[in-house]
Amino acid sequence: MSLKAFHIVFIGASTLLSFGVGVWAFVTGAEPGQSADRIFGALAFLVGITLIVYGVRFLRKLRNVGFL
């Protein structure tokens, strides 16, 4: 597996993990008075969106490099 392929897999896994943590934080923070969980969930979603943008820019930058 090339470094490019590993990077894409790692960014994909990190994105899914970030969105999963965001959903988990919003579900557990549904009770009143737990605004820290909601802030944590919002930050996790922001990180997930940032990782998507990063992944797209990475693919554009290395479009001429092969996967093997």
Would you kindly provide a brief summary of this structure?
By secondary structure, this protein is mainly α.
Describe this structure in words.
The protein has two helices and no strands. It has helices spanning 3-28, 35-61. The protein starts with a helix and ends in a 7-residue tail after the last helix.
What do the pLDDT scores average to? 89
Count of distinct strands: 0
How would you sum up the major sheet?
Answer: none
The share of residues in extended strands comes to under 5%
What helical percentage do the residues reach? over 70%
Global Rg: 15 Å
Structural domain count: 1
Q: What is the 3D form?
A: elongated
Helix and strand layout, with pairings?
Blueprint: H1 3-28, H2 35-61
Helix pairs in contact: 1-2
Main traits of this protein?
78% helix; 68 residues; mainly alpha; elongated; 2 helices; 0% strand
